[in-house]
């Protein structure tokens, strides 16, 4: 009867309940009682004449689908954060509990016209996340959405597609095979009844469900006016983690993500481990510490390292007295360190001076 996210209807449902609201509209209740405008009520009555809920439920059942509402055991309570704009109910196709799957889920979104870089990164991130037990949520669109779903499916993971059409409609048509795989291996979810086709506004409203359903949203590629940014903004407004993957600064498809990161509205992430650390359990989903390779010089004790730094990079080197002053050590102590460095192949004696070894000899520990 209504479009997704209709806050006016949501407020009235909160006050009267869905069944009482529909009965009142059919009975011709005055607008003042329902706190809805006369024009809106006329539109609802016209739609109600063409609605057959029992037939819709039976068609959903034959396609392996079902309909859930707030208060059902499968209803994800985090959707209630949308307030009056929360879904009245959800059509679901596939096995598994949406509530259980959403408890450990992350949404990955981005541009439809993505670059090969963006497609690769989205697939890699989602494969890594799926291998760590995360459920991937996206919108089944071309580009980043498709790569996100495919990345999860490739490693035997679970993925959920939130659609802007009925769960029996393969949209976009080019992703029909992917959508069927998601239904078999995960879930298809929609606010819209069966056979409903998408429009531009339904895509935007769909994004709020993606943002609310998951613990966080990752934007892989997005231009400055990309619809994926609306998902990120809703996630931020709902106090969900918002993350972005940097791309080439020369690409327009990176500009929206970079603007999010630069403004502080998104956290920079580079792999699945970093995403998991942000949205996971404290102390349990930690990403490995990142550091460069450990070089042999890094293992030297501080006094030895100071003496090595004092040795000039000249062919004649320097006498121990000068090296001792620069290292801040006594001459005797400096000589001991020089002989240690000589044993390790870093320096060599050149008459009364010490100099760096041009080509380091193999040395023991």
From TrEMBL:
<dbReference type="InterPro" id="IPR057666">
    <property type="entry name" value="DrpA_SLOG"/>
</dbReference>
<comment type="similarity">
    <text>Belongs to the DprA/Smf family.</text>
</comment>
<dbReference type="InterPro" id="IPR003488">
    <property type="entry name" value="DprA"/>
</dbReference>
<protein>
    <submittedName>
        <fullName>DNA processing protein</fullName>
    </submittedName>
</protein>
<dbReference type="Pfam" id="PF02481">
    <property type="entry name" value="DNA_processg_A"/>
</dbReference>
<feature type="domain" description="Smf/DprA SLOG">
    <location>
        <begin position="67"/>
        <end position="277"/>
    </location>
</feature>
